[in-house]
């Protein structure tokens, strides 16, 4: 017997229930024991003086009238009686629970849980409370396939049978320091507390437990990264200085700092595993270029992976220009550039024999048959778009290449430790000189004509504009229809020779053509779906129109807006939307109030509410069961600090109080390997 046993070992759990539980994310006994209540009902008896109207409470008194049951229709009924509480009489009504009339007799003492109405002096009954139950009861998530009452029973059964197998992951000294319960007690109290205080303490312990185990895993990765001998990239400092001097602009202070951090990592024998965070347009690409240049001067190859073909193409073009005078060869590798057999064969040959110094590509780069001569540095752009596995495969391509991951801050600074805890972080917190904040406004749909007029006037000044077509969730086809519709309208209004269309269903060549036409100013307007979202850099474009802007997430709007304001000209972003909810309006307002990506991602998380915050997909954050990284940030930070101290202490593996933690981490990593 152990906590890894399937829930199928419990009495009364057959294939159907197993399936229903699995759907709720419960596969093992451990999952069930940590399937915590999401809230509690306080059914302790209250006095009339201490309660508010519309509150759900338990009231106890003497039944002061004969219960009267009235049935109407086939299934409907109403049961009425009076309850005498000290000197007050309140009316109690139960709807559609006729069997309750049998449990009520005049003169009897009775406790009823229900919703209290102060004005009417009445209680709308939910259930009769029998003496045996606890005052404080957990409420669990359930589904149509499995009722809450069954889940409760199973949790109880699992606890009774398995509690002696529950071991502590958080070392004792830390539990004592923060006055946390041991795991067995904590699991008991979080499911079956007798008071609110008990439940609160158990929950605090559970949050710590969860954050600590997670952070310990990340810290272990970090420690191993440090221990692993990395490559020593002995770049040519003179050449590097010349290269930086030769750039068309001076680096910002933040960029210089980051370059120094990266250079120090490369020179050190330790393995580099660094995350570069910087707001949209802060100049991350040039940092990548500098790091790649340095790598090549040391005799190694470098690769940069971008999340889209458009972006890979753009990077390849820019970097090829930049590196040309230094005799460095740059190759583009995407699914389309590799689709012609002959081209592919040549590319692979030159990559393997070291003729190619730098590769820019999409995930096509990590295909099995691609071999490098001596890969020294791997950079991923917008890394949240790459899965952990893709990152790992890339890592395996070289002996142990230095890793630099770049992201335009989808995650607030304080939260970066949750996902990137195993990485060292560099931040570009400054925009290049001369940038003006993008002026953002929000208009209603009926004003779209005025918006078009505004665009026209701006184009007359020689600038260019993007129009982003509405997004229809989960339907690329409808997105496309929308984009085509907007394209037609724009052609009608601005003249067909002025407008190009870009969408995800176009093949790489068509996309490239549309982008080139826009870059070369052959067209002044690019109508696009969100394929344009990340990284596209056309400094002459100064107007961004986003139609139905309320359908996009805040982080996405910020990314889209980041396509303008990339030069020194005044830039504008106009959000066209009729949001219905307050929440939707609030989001539009935030966009008009700030240009700070960190702040926006923080707001995005706050506005989504805890349930959604944990959605992996939207926020890039890992999922937790009880802990909410936004609400419980303090606990998260302390847990990270402690996990770091434990894992990095010299006697981590030999100290007895860490044994359970080590076992736990081994189990976790074993699971991950299977997925790999
Ligand atoms: N120090 C600097 N001074 C002036 N211009 C700069 C500087 N650094 C970068 N730029 C320019 O700023 C623009 C934005 O840079 P870049 O494309 O690297 O941004 P980014 O951080 O990758 O942004 P995004 O996340 O939006 O892709 C580019 O046109 C680049 O040439």
UniProtKB/TrEMBL annotation:
Record GO biological process: DNA recombination; DNA repair
Enzyme Commission number(s): 5.6.2.4
Alphabetized UniProt keyword annotations: ATP-binding, DNA damage, DNA recombination, DNA repair, DNA-binding, Helicase, Hydrolase, Isomerase, Nucleotide-binding
Xref: CDD domains: DEXHc_RecG, RecG_wedge_OBF, SF2_C_RecG
Domain Helicase C-terminal: 447-606
PROSITE patterns in alphabetical order: HELICASE_ATP_BIND_1, HELICASE_CTER
Domain of life: Bacteria
MF annotations from Gene Ontology: 3'-5' DNA helicase activity; ATP binding; ATP hydrolysis activity; DNA binding
Pfam families cross-referenced by the UniProt entry: DEAD, Helicase_C, RecG_dom3_C, RecG_wedge
Catalytic activity of the protein: Couples ATP hydrolysis with the unwinding of duplex DNA by translocating in the 3'-5' direction; ATP + H2O = ADP + phosphate + H(+)
SUPFAM superfamilies in the cross-refs: Nucleic acid-binding proteins, P-loop containing nucleoside triphosphate hydrolases
Domain Helicase ATP-binding: 265-428
Function in brief: Plays a critical role in recombination and DNA repair. Helps process Holliday junction intermediates to mature products by catalyzing branch migration. Has replication fork regression activity, unwinds stalled or blocked replication forks to make a HJ that can be resolved. Has a DNA unwinding activity characteristic of a DNA helicase with 3'-5' polarity.
Family: Belongs to the helicase family. RecG subfamily.
Full protein name: ATP-dependent DNA helicase RecG
Organism: Ligilactobacillus salivarius (strain UCC118) (Lactobacillus salivarius)
This protein's encoding gene: recG
